[in-house]
């Protein structure tokens, strides 16, 4: 498990493009036939993926966690962005179709992943934070997510937010998770931008044509930078950073947060005209 150490707002403005990418961009996910994980010292986040092909993949602990099993002291959110598959948690199967979400409780000892068709594998995106209590393991279909429509065609940001893990949906200790789908012709996400000092966040972009890119904007509102991101890559967003993107085509992204609270609207907005 690779470890990421976050930069602070003082070091960040002096970083080169390569340094920014090495610090904030996760580009090692969704390798067929394996599980890939990174550990982020910021809020002790774990970001990962599992793409089972011929054999089931078992989620193991790592020396970075110093635990007997992966979710001994953690909770785990899973979003399937691929074909049909299944997650087995302590002997119980949870079949997952495209864009289904599964929350796995702290204390779950055995977790494994399979695909219904090895030639058309499931692609499980994983996001995990420490948990202080065991909440029930719950599977939610896409149709069960809380859907919120935002934006307008004239501002190129018409989109639907699908909330899965949140106080009025699947209960968790600190993880908040869902995804956003942009309409055809819309390119902007999370615009106007915001920060939230009480939580860090991770965006994972998907459903983006391989030839297209998302320009992900980050940093303090008065000193922004951008990362050029491809399909199935993730970006880590510290609490002091905005997190917004514009694509060369429409796309979706999974968002996940952990930190002080779970209030989705706990945001400090930044007016577009004040950005630099």
Descriptive report:
The chain is built from one helix and 24 strands. It has 276 residues and is mainly β. The protein has a single domain (2-274), classed as Jelly Rolls. The strands form five sheets. The protein has a seven-stranded mixed β-sheet, with helices on one face.
- Tally of contiguous helical segments: 1
How many DSSP-defined strands? 24
User: CATH homologous superfamily, by name?
Assistant: Jelly Rolls
Overall morphology: globular
Kindly estimate the percentage of residues that lie in beta strands according to DSSP.
Answer: 35-45%
Show unreliable segments. Answer: none
> How would you characterize the largest beta sheet?
7 strands, mixed
Briefly summarize what is shown.
With 276 residues, the chain is mostly beta strands.
Summary tags:
globular; 276 residues; 7-stranded antiparallel sheet; 24 strands; mainly beta; Jelly Rolls; 7-stranded mixed sheet; 44% strand
Could you outline the blueprint of secondary structure elements for this entry?
Blueprint: E1 2-4, H1 17-24, E2 25-26, E3 35-40, E4 45-50, E5 57-58, E6 74-80, E7 85-89, E8 92-96, E9 101-104, E10 111-115, E11 124-130, E12 138-140, E13 146-150, E14 159-165, E15 176-182, E16 188-189, E17 194-195, E18 199-206, E19 214-220, E20 223-229, E21 233-237, E22 242-247, E23 252-259, E24 268-269
Parallel strand pairs: 1-3
Antiparallel strand pairs: 2-21, 3-4, 4-11, 5-10, 6-9, 6-11, 7-8, 7-10, 9-12, 13-14, 14-15, 15-23, 16-22, 17-24, 18-21, 18-23, 19-20, 19-22
């Amino acid at each position: 498990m690779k470890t990421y150490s976050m930069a602070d707002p003082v070091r960040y403005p002096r970083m080169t493009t390569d340094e920014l990418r090495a610090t904030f961009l996760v580009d090692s996910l969704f390798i067929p036939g394996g599980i890939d994980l990174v550990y982020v010292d910021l809020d002790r986040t774990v970001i990962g993926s599992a793409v089972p092909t011929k054999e089931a993949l078992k989620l193991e602990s790592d020396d970075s966690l110093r635990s007997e099993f992966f979710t001994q002291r953690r909770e785990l959110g899973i979003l399937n962005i691929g074909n049909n598959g299944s997650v087995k948690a302590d002997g119980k199967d949870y079949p997952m179709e495209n864009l289904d979400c599964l929350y796995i409780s702290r204390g779950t000892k055995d977790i494994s992943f399979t695909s219904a068709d090895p030639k058309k594998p499931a692609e499980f995106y994983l996001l995990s934070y420490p948990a202080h209590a065991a909440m029930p393991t719950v599977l939610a279909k896409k149709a069960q997510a809380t859907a919120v429509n935002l934006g307008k065609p004239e501002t190129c940001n018409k989109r639907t937010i699908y909330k899965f893990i949140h106080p009025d949906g699947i209960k968790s200790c600190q993880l908040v998770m869902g995804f956003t789908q942009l309409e055809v012709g819309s390119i902007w996400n999370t615009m106007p931008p915001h920060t939230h000092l009480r939580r860090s966040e991770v965006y994972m972009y998907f459903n983006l044509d391989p030839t297209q890119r998302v320009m992900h904007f980050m940093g303090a509102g008065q000193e922004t930078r951008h990362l050029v991101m491809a399909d199935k890559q993730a970006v880590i967003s510290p609490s002091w950073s905005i997190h917004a993107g514009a694509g060369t085509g429409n796309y979706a992204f999974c968002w996940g947060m952990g930190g002080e609270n779970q209030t989705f609207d706990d945001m400090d907005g930044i007016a577009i005209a004040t950005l630099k």
